[in-house]
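Lab notebook: predicted structure, single chain.

Context: the supervisor wants predicted structures on file for every construct in the current expression panel, including those that have not yet been purified. This is the next one on the list. No modifications to the sequence; it matches the entry in the shared construct table.
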Amino acid sequence: MNAPEMNASWLTEQGRVRAIDGDSVLVEVGVKSACGHCEHGAGCGVSKLGRLVRVRPLLWRLPNTLGAREGDQVTLALPPGDLTGAVARAYGLPLAGFVGAAVLAALGGAGEGATVGSAFTGLALGLWAARRSSQAHPVAPVLIARTPPRRRVRPASYPANHGELPMSATTEQDPILSTDFILEMLRQTRALDSYGTYDGWPAERVLAPYILTKEQRRDIPVIGDPDDVVLSRVRAFYNAIAAMIEKECRLMAVPMVNITHEGFGRVVITVGKLVVLDRTLRDVHRFGFDSLSKMKDEGDKYLSVALEIIGKYPEVAGM
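Prediction complete. Output recorded below exactly as produced.
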């Protein structure tokens, strides 16, 4: 069975296969806080509670549609509509029962005590209905990709240098894949791939998530924290610009990317004491480009401006 087709609006997460049970796999997924500050010990203080109460990883029993084996790293995906429906049932039905029963009791002339009792009775019925609904319509992710453990033998066609682009027939057909900036984007994307998901993937598949049409951007919600995978793409893009600056001027370029949990932020690249790029980010959830050519043009534009600034103030850049 093939993996289902998905688009950029799907919610994705990384997990690891812990056991095989017939046609199913037991996948372990680490639990993350809804607030990105917790892992830094900042924010509202919930992180301090997290140190006292240790949350266990989630375990999902899923159909083994990819032929995964124990120890494989897998990517799970969940359509946003499924999650929205589950949340609506879990919270909407109890609330509707609570309010509806109270209103009906009040309209029927019941006293204050009877109205309160009716409200809690309606709440209990709503909770029961929500539970039955969740059992009738369970929400579970699907497996869309698998990566065997790193100990496997590296294919001969894959270069020893992790960041180099394999010169395949596709590369010859599309010259954009052999340009300096796109090659650097490939290196930076692979460098941020801590799970080795992209090992053995061709360049066009690794870079495909950076390409979003206008329709796909509109379909991506901007409510909630930006996905960690999206944040890594943002960092890879500006890391690539910094690496190209170093290559051109032989001076160390330091990228600093700060993004809030609302998807807004700022990126700064400095060379010595000189700021060569300062850009405000917004709606990071929808980060992407119309094409690889557009991404290259955007990167080259920032690179050109940065090199021009360095040329005007070489003494500051060398400090």
